[in-house]
Amino acid sequence: MIIKKIDYDKKEKLYTVYFENKNIEVRQGTLIKFNLYVGKELDRDMTEEFKYFDQYDTAKNLALRYLKNMKSEYQVRFYLKTKDFEENIIDQVIDYLYSIKYLDDLDYARAYSLDRQNIYKYGKNKIIFKLREKQIPEKFIDIALMELSEDVEIENLRKSIAVKKKTLKSTDKNYYYKLVNSMFNKGFDIDLIKKVLREDFDE
Fold first, then answer.
1. Of the residues 83, 100, 117, which one is the last residue of a structural domain?
2. Which of 18, 31, 48, 148 is least surrounded by CB atoms within 10 angstroms?
3. Is the pTM of this model over 0.85?
4. Same domain, yes or no: 191 and 141
5. Contact 43, 77 (CB under 8 A)
6. Which of 81, 100, 119 is the last residue of a domain?
7. Which domain holds residue 69?
8. Same domain (yes/no): 149, 163
9. Per-residue pLDDT for the chain (203 aa), expressed as one digit of tens each?
10. Among 81, 100, 104, which residue's Cα sits nearest to residue 91?
11. Which residues pair with 8 in a beta bridge?
């Protein structure tokens, strides 16, 4: 196949490579890497090779932009699937991201856990649930949770209880159970909730 014409779309930032019976859209990186120019003859294997590379290069650049903030491997895979990339392309991009240290599920679990405990005041159980949603391996979740402060967990619980109390009437017959359920839904351990409430009511 011989390249008949090459056009550039400024809006889409894509090059259209025209052959006799078909045309293929590629990025600038592909055009340069394969030295594509009008009049160049390509065999079928070369055409498939540059099409594959262009898909990979596009997926890689999308993933790098998506990783402006930390993400888990699962999140990146899911994002690329929504863009209709093939599994082998996604696998190659994931390998590349690990090789340049842009992906690390353990670092992600640690950063996410600290952020959720210190800023959003999540209880540990809610953090575990959220990390599992992002398909972080259990061994990484365990490590991240072990590094969280028990003192901060208790302090967050006490503050959450104080805030919730202001929304409840102490005369409500379900006052205690509403407090327990509210704290449980925030991800705090049921035994810790009861212990802190018991100390609170004893004061």
1. 100
2. 48
3. no
4. yes
5. no
6. 100
7. 2-100
8. yes
9. 899 999 998 888 889 999 888 888 888 989 998 899 999 998 888 888 888 999 999 999 999 999 999 999 999 999 999 999 999 999 999 999 999 999 999 999 999 999 999 999 999 999 999 999 999 999 999 999 999 999 999 999 999 999 999 999 988 889 999 999 999 999 999 999 999 999 887 65
10. 81
11. 15
